């Protein structure tokens, strides 16, 4: 089947506009901004080794993490593209301490959408040519259009998301997103600079045999997680499972959604709330996972029901094939009945 027979992302966005509750074309323009920014970042990622974008900037972000040059560059590219589209009134990013109010154009304050982004996910893999990603989450503001954007516009439960997705910059570059009507994946044809619908209606299999967790932290894991890892490794029934861990959330999630599996970044004795950020990592992946028939919790509670209190708060994260997440939760509830 030649590229031409695949529907393009642009066509798909327009086609699906009617399915969308608030369809006024604004979300389509917002998604187009993400599409454009992803192509610009993709070009930089592809030539990272020769484009002087390898290595650290020498600053730390609010999470206390060393910012990579590509973290900062991707952040600038996405903020620029989103700010130019007159549909976004505010942006929050992993790389910015506070949210940004967009006032780059006269109507910005009338815009209804806020975007939360992890501009470059899997930063530890940039310098070693392993796939990385971008994660985005979109909400309607809660404050009145025409009034200043406020923190509450961003501190919304995941169930309020109107769209979410990721870009994976891997052996091929893909955009995968949902607006609440299933999950679809589009592959970039770099020669044409066009995304084509390559993975319609993506689904997690009910169960799988891949588990993804950084076992290097094993001694610091809660007992429930240690018990689940032992369960995965036991010679029994369809086990032992295969361990796969890329160290880029987007890439581990993407593989598990295609092959069936579970990704866990639990709390540890050093970081009791885990590592991943609720608003621009966990909520968008949870929306995608649930739309693809999977499940996503903090080991006990549905991620998208968690009430956010801070822009950069972290939560433990259990996400993937439904039955596998249920099993992991069973071990957590048995080992930590008080939680
Ligand atoms: O190296 P660790 O502790 O296993 O953490 C890896 C995890 O951290 C992350 O890199 C955090 O995301 P950022 O790179 O956007 O900060 C995830 O992509 C990944 O799954
Ligand atoms: Mg990340
Ligand atoms: Mg990041």
UniProtKB/TrEMBL annotation:
Q: How is the cofactor bound here?
A: Binds 2 magnesium ions per subunit.
Q: Where is the Fructose-1-6-bisphosphatase class I N-terminal domain?
A: 8-200
Which prosthetic group or cofactor does it need? Mg(2+)
Q: Output the superkingdom of the source species.
A: Bacteria
Would the keyword Magnesium be found if you checked this record's keyword annotation? yes
The record's EC number reads 3.1.3.11
What chemistry does it catalyse, as a reaction equation? beta-D-fructose 1,6-bisphosphate + H2O = beta-D-fructose 6-phosphate + phosphate
InterPro entries, from UniProt?
Answer: FBPase_C_dom, FBPase_class-1, FBPase_N, FBPtase, Fructose_bisphosphatase_AS
Checking HAMAP family in the record gives:
FBPase_class1
Assembly state and interactors?
Homotetramer.
Protein name, please? Fructose-1,6-bisphosphatase class 1
- Gene source species: Kaistella antarctica
Gene for this protein? fbp
